[in-house]
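User: Fold this, then the next.

Assistant: Folding the first:
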Amino acid sequence: MGSSKIGYLTFNEKPWSNLLRRQVIEVISESNKLTNKDLILVSFLPFYEYLRNRSNISDLNKELQKEGIRFITIPTPFPIPIYTRDRGWINRWRYDWIRMLVVLLYSTPFVLYLKFISGINIFHCRSYPISVSVLAIKCISKDIRLIFDPRSDFPEENITRRNWSKRSLSYKMWKKLERQLCIHSDYVIAISNTYDQHFKKIYSGVKTKIIPNNVNTNEFSPDQVRDESIREKHDIDESTTLVCYSGSMYESLWNNPDEYGCVIEKLLELNRNLQFMFLIPPDSNELLRKKFHEYNINDEHYIIENPNFEQVPTLLSQADLGLYILDNESIRIGTKFVEYCSAGLPTIVNQNVEGAAEIIRKNNLGCEISLHFNKNNSYCPPESLSKDDSERIHDIISNSEEISEDCRQFAKENFDTTIIANSYAKLY
C-alpha cells in the first residue's frame, strides 16, 4: 500500500443498512481494489445505535477486514431521541446553528486524531455536518484533501421540510458554510447533472465531478434473477402490469404514503389492470394500508413485501414498471431509480424528482407525469392526469420490453458499481 490514507466518513447513518451497503460498502470495497492507498471507513454513530447494533458493527468489521479496509466507529451524543405524542420516539435532528456548534465542537477533536494519529490525508465526507469539521482542520493543515459528497441540497431540503425559512439564521449559516465547502473542497461530488448545475449556478469556480448512485448490475438483473413466485403467490396474470415501489415509507418524510395513495388513485382511473407492489420496511406496513384505505384503494390492487438486502433484486425482477413520486421539488435521482434501471424497469416519475426526470426525458427510460400536490387544502389534486400524461403511461406499458432493454443498457454504462468505484478511485 502507498503512504496516503483515505478516510471515508459517514455521519448519523447506519453503514450496515441496505442503502449504505449499496452506496458505501460495495463502492469502497471495489475502490479499494483499484487504488494503492489505505482506505478507512469512519462512521460517526448516535450512541444508542452504537450500543444496540454491536453485532451489526462486529459483522461489518469482519466483512471489511477481508477486503483490507479498516472500520472505525465513533459514538456521538446526538441526535438525542425525543418523544412525541403522535410519532413516539424520533431521532431526527434539525441541524440548526446552535446544534451545529455542538457537532463541530464534538467531532473536530476526532478529525484531528484521524489526521495526525491515524495519518488520513484524504477525507471523503458523505454529509454536510462532518464536512464542516474536516474543512476547519483543512484551514490549519493545508495538505488535507477534502472530497465533499453532499448527497442532497441540504439547506434547500430543510426549507422544503419546513425546518427553516430562507430568513432563518440556520439557513443563512448553512448557505455560507456550503459556499466555503464548495470553494475549498478539492472536489464536490454531484450525483446527477441537476446537482452539478445547482452548485455551478450558485458558486463560480466550484470543482465538481458527476458520479451518480451505483448499483450492482449483475445482481439487479432481469435475466439472472427472474422469478414468478410473487405473481403465482398473488395470482397475478401476465396481462396485469405490475408496478413496483422500493424504499423507505414514512409519514412526513420523503416518500410518504400520501404521495403514493394519490398517484395510484390517478393511475387506476386510467387503467384498472394495474397491480402495485411495495417493497418497504415492516414498520411501515400499517401506515401504508391505513393511507390506501383513505384513498379507497382496495387490497386487490396492491401487495406489500418486506424484503431483506438480498431479496430486493429478485422481487424487482418480477415487476414491469418502477414508480417514484415526490410531493416537493428535489434535484435527486434516488437509489431506487438506479436499481429500477438495472432491473430493466421503465419508471414513472413526477416533475418533482428532477434528477431522475431529466435522465428519463433525455434517454427514454420511462415517463414523467405532472402531479402537483396541494400544501393547504386537499393534498391530492382532484383533477385526473392530463391527456398527455395518459398517453405517455400507455406508451411505456405498450413498449415496456423495448424500453426495458434501454434501461438495462443505460444502467450498465452509467450506474454499475465497478464504473462508479473506478471514478472514485481516480479522485483519490
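Now the next one, as you asked:
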Amino acid sequence: MDDNLIVESSTKIFSGKTSEENLNLINLFLENIDKETYDGPDIVKIITIFDEIWLDLKYGIKEAILFLKIVEILLKCEVESLKKHATNLGITYTAKDLKKGKEGIIHRLLGKYHRKKVTNYFSNCLVLSHAESIEVFKNEPDGSINALVSEIKLETLAWIILYQSQREDLLYLLKESYPKDYAIYLWKCLMCYITMDFEIIMDKPHELSFKKNQIQQENKKLHKNLKVARNRTSILQRTIYEKEMNEKALLTQMHGLYNDAVKETEDLKRQLQQLKHDHNMELTCIREMFEEERAYYQGTINALRLKSIDGDVIQEKTDLTGQTVAVIGGNRERHYREIVKRYNGEINFVPEDKPNLVQGAVLKSNVVFFLSGIAGHVHWRDALNAAKIRNIPFIYVNTKGVTTFEGLLLQYIKQSHETGYRIQLS
C-alpha cells in the first residue's frame, strides 16, 4: 500500500459506507493530516467514524492488520522472490501469470490466502522481518510502547500487540496516546480491506477476479494524484513567493518615498528658517538705519535752531559741484545721467544686471541712491556697508521713477550736512 493519503480515492472507497457528513470529515482529516493544529476532538470523531464502518464489515481489525502487513510484503517483493514464495507454499503459477509479471503472481498467491498454511507462512515472514522490535516489546510490553512508536509504523506495532502478546488493552493506550497515528492506522486497514476485496479472498476465492494490472494501475493513479497535488503546492508556493517579493518591493518603495518626503520636509524647514533669519536681519538693519536717520535729522534740526538763534544765515546748496553720485539699480540710465549733470554732478551708474559692480561704484562716490528692484537684499546690504565704510549718505528710493529720484536728489543738495551716514525712504 502507498502511504500517501489521497482524498479522491478515499471518497470513492468509503462512499455508501458512511454518511455524506462523515465523508466530508474524513476528507478534511486527510487534507490536514500533516498539520499539527488538526488534533484533539476532530481526531476522536474520525476514529469513531472508522470504528462504525468496521461494525458493518464481516472481519475485524485483527484480521485486517495481518492482511495489510502481508500485502505490504508482497508489493515490496521482486518477481523472483514472489516465485520463491509460491514454490515454498506449493502454489502453481502459470506462464500467463508470469507474463503479467509481479501482479500475476501476487494474484495467484492471494487466491490461496484463505488457507491457514499461507497466512502462517507469511506471518512467519513478518516475525523474521520485525524480530528485533518483537523482542523489545516482549521484554517490556508496557514500557516499550513510546520507544517503538518512534522507530516503526504504528500499524506494525499494532500487529505486534495483537499477534505477539494478546494484550489488546495496549491498543487502547495507542489510541489515547497517539490518536492521529491511530486514525491513520485504521484508515490504512480499511483501505486495504475494501480495495483488495478481503472478504472475497477469504470466503469466495474462486470468484476473485483482478482486472488487468489492477495493482499497478492503482499505484499509477495514486502517484498521478500525488503529482497533481505537488504541482498545485508548487504553484501555490510560487504565488506566495511572488506576493512576498511584491510586498517587499512595495515596502522598499514606500520606505524610499518616506525618506524622500522626510528629506524634502527638512529642506523646506531649513529654507523657512533661513528666510526667517534673513527677514529678521533685514528688519534689524532697517531699524538701525531708521534710528541713525532719526538721530541725523534731530542733529540737523538742533543745529539749525542754534544757528537761527545766533542769527546766522544758512546758505542753501544749489548744485552737486565736485560730487559724484552712485545710482544703483533702475532702468533709465539716460534720464538719471541728465538729472545729475543738470546739477553739475558726476554719476556712477550700476545697472540691475551687474550687481557685482555695486561696491566699487559706492566707494568712488559721495552719495548713494539705491533704487528698488536690484536683485536681492544681499546687494542692498553690500551697498549699505560700502556707504558706511566711505562714510557717505545712503538714500533708498522705493521706486524707479525719474521724478521721485530728482526730488530726493534736490532734497539731498539742499541739506547743509551732506556727509555722514543716513538713509532716506521714499
